Amino acid sequence: MTFPDNFYWGAASAAYQVEGAYNEDGKGPGIWDALSEGHVKHRENGNVACDHYHRYKEDVALMKEMGLKAYRFSVSWPRIMPSEGVINEKGLEFYRNLVKELTDAGIEPMCTLFHWNLPMWLHEKGGWYCTKISDYFEKYTETVVEALSDKVSYWMTFNEPACFIGCGYVMGNHAPFEKCMDMEHPEEMAQKIALLSKNVLLSHGKAVQAIRRCAKKAPKIGMALNASLFTPENTSEESVEAARAATFSEQGAFWNLNWWADPMVKGEIPRAMKDVISGEEREIICQPLDFFGFNNYNTNDYDEYEGRNERAWPGMPRTAMDWPITPDALYWAVKFIYGRYGLPVLITENGMANLDFVMSDGKVHDPQRVEFLKVYLAGLKKAVGEGVPVIGYMYWSILDNFEWAEGYDKRFGLVYVDYRTQKRTRKDSSYWYAEVIANNGADL
């Protein structure tokens, strides 16, 4: 058995994590540019990152060499709109050039509109608390779609709203480093989370409308969500249903999938947001979607949801992010998502951070990543064989890059980046992945 003939084998990145050129060609500051000082390991930042802004042709050539069918990238909002009411043509030109390079190489460009770096001018208006942010996002979406939709068909509105709201505004460990978590005043905290979430959801709905209105060729629209995923201890119906119930419970609020996906896909509003979202707003939020994008790296056993961590046994395999390696993650992710939402699934991120370095032979040997990919993709293949419509898999990430508050320590890439010289070195995993792509997963 192989994957479908039109399956998108790809890899992903995010603008702030790879582009660099933080103040070039008219780009304005974003919250990660302006506010991260003192919040990132080793006082590092994304000012240069992988210098993808200047080296995108080299990077696309590496993608072509690997045989990638798709590349998921994000557009930098502050590069396009450096200040209120200003559109930066140089910024649009960069992305036009990037998507042309991709399509000329036979690689499908998949565009994410927002991957965490909010323009500072919009942050100063309240950021995701701002009641008008959905209108600003709609205008930004129109601008990008009008510029790129002659070559881009696949669009994602947001990457991981659970993270940029949860980490950025609740826990305060990501930009803008605001912390509304206050267990002594839970009602006030809940109101803030509901308002933040409402503004993201409205922005999503208006963006979907804008894409359909402005796209030059038929668009395929989704999102890239992440969430706590719970998997069964065994295949009994009781165990599977317990894991499914935990995955879609409202108890986890914004960390759970249904907090975001139920309003977007089903038009159903979680109880905690019903007082702030009107019927008219619900209609805006719930727009027809073409696929369900999901980022996943690991799972929890459903017993952990009840306070018992059955999977955290001593010596359990973990990545360099200290995340557990759970080979059944993608299998259950796509089964549960398709079962609830009925949309084709695109794995928009999956991968592992490893302790990679260039060895004395000049190569980067990463057998752990190869094994990770082998077992995770085997689970995905099993789900496809059982009839789940999975349209693609985007490995995170194409390049080692700036890993947010972790700085440059955590290396996820298929390609090693020496940040002193910007030299790229393909890792062993990239050659293994190229073979998987060439035989369409036949040997998994």
- Quick one: CATH superfamily? Glycosidases
CATH class placement: Alpha Beta
Do you know the CATH topology?
Answer: TIM Barrel
Q: Classify the helix fraction into a percent range.
A: 40-55%
Mean pLDDT: 96
Give, in spatial order, the strands making up the sheet with the most strands.
Answer: 1-2-3-4-5-7-9-10
Beta strands, count: 12
SSE arrangement:
Elements: E1 8-12, H1 15-18, H2 31-35, H3 52-66, E2 70-74, H4 77-80, H5 89-104, E3 108-114, H6 120-123, H7 133-148, E4 154-159, H8 161-171, H9 186-214, E5 220-225, E6 230-231, H10 237-247, H11 257-266, H12 279-285, E7 292-295, E8 300-301, H13 302-305, H14 329-341, E9 345-350, H15 367-385, E10 390-396, E11 415-418, E12 423-426, H16 428-438
Parallel strand pairs: 1-2, 1-10, 2-3, 3-4, 4-5, 5-7, 6-8, 7-9, 9-10
Antiparallel strand pairs: 11-12
Helix pairs in contact: 3-5, 7-9, 8-9, 9-12, 14-15, 15-16
